[in-house]
């Protein structure tokens, strides 16, 4: 369509040039009329070209990222276990699942959630509500100590921002809640609003890596997620989460993925959980991810492992769509010399990474099931007690 518009521009210019020549009255009228028609045709062609370009850009944004050469190839079953941390909790009694524990301790009210909003909504009560706030405060405090800037973000974002981050806000299988008659959507992760912090920005290399940590509410339709594996707290339409987001240079991103994973491991180790670290296969990667490491904790009551966290390197996939750039500076090269400064004004695309520091419902499952006692009580992890007024044990009601 650009070619057609170009031909019309050439014809219009030729017509305008002809109008400057010596013409009879009749010839001039014909040239003027032709000019009007060419102008109308050009406006129409340029509008059609703009629509086609937008459609092409949108389809192009659906293409996934490249994958790391060491990422396992296949579906979820092909995930490679990198390491196992801690040991499974041992019990002298049959461990209950979090639903039974939550009911006995008066912590989880799914009936009220259903009355208020439908299935897969829950009221956290008593110590569970305190645990949610404690987990988020503790995770944010740890992130701040590690150099992340604590942030709170909007729960609503533009649909176009979701698309640029690699999410599909429309379609039968979308996980996104859209606001009717509005360009806004509810966020499924704070990664999306955090990405907007650097969108359309040119950063100095000295500013990188930019580390952000956000507490946010997450909203997901969980389309196609029915089944016993997702019952209880495991899959909800709304939950709280602390998310980490990093903007860096291309040279920094692989090491930063390891750094994010190490940060997550330290958190879950300090909580006293048993978990394994997985290198996720190509078939399980979202569109933006170049490589993704998952953490799966042992959930004794459910009798299986369950994902509690992930860390992803998205390379320049999101940065290109979000127009996040940086201006390189001089620095030593591998050969020991100094890389010459980029030509004046030259910029390069950044890389982005994201990781989950604390997904509240999944950690509540792990804590309740791992630290349950024979008398029905649950021991509060040591690191969370200062955030819960010193509470050490969640006791059953008398």
Automatic annotation (TrEMBL):
Q: Which GO terms describe its biological process?
A: seryl-tRNA aminoacylation
**GO molecular function list:** ATP binding; serine-tRNA ligase activity
Please tell me the species this chain comes from: Elliptochloris bilobata
Which PANTHER family does this UniProt record tie to the protein? Answer: SERYL-TRNA SYNTHETASE
What top-level class of enzyme does the UniProt entry assign? ligase
- For ATP, which residues are the binding ones? 220-222, 307-310
Q: Which residues bind L-serine?
A: 189, 220, 243, 354
This protein's name: serine--tRNA ligase
- Which residues are marked as site: Important for serine binding? 356
Per UniProt, the keywords (alphabetical) are: Aminoacyl-tRNA synthetase, ATP-binding, Ligase, Nucleotide-binding, Protein biosynthesis
Location of the Aminoacyl-transfer RNA synthetases class-II family profile domain: 147-381
Question: What's the EC number here?
Answer: 6.1.1.11
Question: Annotated region Disordered: where?
Answer: 1-26
Q: Is Cell wall biogenesis/degradation a UniProt keyword of this protein? A: no
Q: Which GO terms describe its cellular component?
A: cytoplasm
Q: Which Gene3D superfamilies match?
A: Bira Bifunctional Protein, Domain 2 (3.30.930.10)
Q: Which SUPFAM superfamilies match?
A: Class II aaRS and biotin synthetases (SSF55681), tRNA-binding arm (SSF46589)
PROSITE patterns assigned to the protein according to its UniProt record, in alphabetical order: AA_TRNA_LIGASE_II
Q: Which domain of life is it from?
A: Eukaryota
């Amino acid at each position: 369509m650009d070619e057609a518009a170009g031909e019309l521009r050439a014809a219009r210019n030729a017509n305008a040039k002809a109008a400057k020549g010596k013409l009879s009255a009749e010839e001039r009228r014909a040239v003027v009329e032709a000019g009007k028609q060419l102008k109308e045709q050009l406006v129409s062609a340029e509008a059609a070209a703009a629509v086609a370009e937008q459609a092409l850009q949108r389809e192009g944004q659906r293409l996934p990222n490249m994958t790391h050469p060491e990422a396992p190839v296949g579906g979820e079953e092909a995930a490679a276990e990198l390491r196992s941390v801690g040991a499974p909790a041992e019990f002298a009694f049959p461990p209950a699942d979090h639903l039974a524990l939550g009911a006995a301790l008066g912590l989880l009210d799914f009936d009220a959630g259903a009355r208020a909003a439908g299935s897969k909504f829950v009221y956290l009560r008593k110590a569970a509500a305190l645990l949610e706030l404690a987990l988020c405060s503790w995770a944010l405090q740890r992130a701040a100590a590690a150099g992340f800037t604590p942030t709170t973000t909007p729960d609503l974002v533009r649909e176009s921002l979701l698309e640029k981050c690699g999410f599909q806000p429309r379609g039968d299988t979308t996980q996104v809640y859209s606001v009717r008659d509005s360009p806004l959507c509810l966020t499924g992760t704070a990664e999306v609003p955090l990405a907007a912090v650097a969108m359309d920005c040119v950063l100095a290399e000295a500013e990188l890596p930019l580390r952000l940590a956000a507490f946010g509410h997450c909203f997901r339709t969980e389309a196609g997620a029915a089944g016993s594996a997702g019952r209880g707290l495991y899959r909800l339409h709304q939950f709280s989460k602390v998310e980490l987001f990093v903007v860096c240079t291309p040279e920094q991103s692989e090491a930063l993925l390891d750094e994010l994973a190490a940060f997550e491991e330290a958190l879950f180790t300090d909580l006293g959980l048993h978990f394994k670290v997985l290198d996720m296969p190509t078939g399980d990667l979202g569109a933006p991810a170049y490589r993704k490491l998952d953490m799966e904790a042992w959930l004794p009551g459910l009798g299986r492992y369950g994902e509690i966290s992930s860390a992803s390197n998205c390379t320049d996939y999101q940065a290109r769509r979000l127009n996040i750039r940086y201006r390189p500076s001089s620095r030593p090269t591998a050969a020991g010399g100094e890389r010459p400064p980029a030509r004046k004004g030259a910029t390069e695309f950044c890389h982005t990474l994201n990781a989950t520091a604390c997904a509240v419902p999944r950690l509540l499952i792990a804590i309740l099931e791992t630290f349950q006692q024979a008398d029905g009580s649950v021991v509060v992890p040591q690191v969370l007690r200062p955030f819960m007024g010193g509470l050490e044990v969640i006791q059953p009601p008398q």
